[in-house]
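Schema walk-through. Below, the input block comes first and the output block second. Nothing else is stored per chain. Lengths vary across the set, and this one has 308 residues.
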Amino acid sequence: MTLEKLPPQAMVSAEPQGTNIYVNGQFRATSGKTPVAVDLTSGENTLRFSHPDFLTAERKVSAAQGQHVDVSVKLAPVTGKLSVSGANGATIRIDGQVRGKSPLTVDLLPGDHAVQATRGQRSRQQRVIVEGEKRVDVAFNIPPANEPDTVLCIDRVETDEENRYYTNAVGHFTSTFTPDDSEFTVQEDSNNSIRVNARGPRGTYVTLEFSLGEKQEWQLGTFGSALGHGPRGPKDNVMEISSSDGGLHCRDFLGTFTILEMTVTQKPSPYGRTYERPEITSFAVDFEQVCVNGKGRLGGFFRYNSAR
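--- output ---
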């Protein structure tokens, strides 16, 4: 009685899970949590590993009849390129990490990324979608420090999983509005409030409202314990933020805003009356709201014809 020799076999571990395994051009298996057995032919074999989000890899494996070999492979992710130009010398942060100075080209994993350029006290932000094996170009324009600047930047982080039924309620979101693609209005209301409206492309918007409690006057400095939605008293400071991207979704939060610059001029009434009305001609404010439960924050800054 002659025993039939078994074909050579490879025990293959391939990351990530879901990697397709080919032997000499023929599909044999898909990787999982544990190694998978694939039959080889005697002699040299070409194993190819493919996954839609990772670079394809090949391995040459030699095996004799009845032999078992172990093969382990970890695929490298497919990357795209981000090219940043403009604002020469500005510090470039990607997803919060400093990556260098503009101009700059870096490899990034596919997906949504936040790109920020900072030069001096001035900053611009933009979100980009990077696709594998493709390049995305971003150009920033940051005026010199001695020129007035207008820009609104919002940065929101929320981690409360109970809010997942809201659109865009969990995650990290940033948005930037500049005169290149947005319109701004800044006005002081009769109820001791300053209201900012920014209208961007494709229906995007942000509305900021800063209000002081009674017997307070607008001045440079920090105003804390600013309430948002909900009950408030006549002495309470108030800061409300709404946007097309959604404000904070937590139930209770407190805010702080710091007025860095504010210039108010008197403008004659268009109706020919004797009184004049004030007009805000420059304004600079930093602001932040924090969820009381610690699971979210929304911060940012607004500059309007500002030298800050």
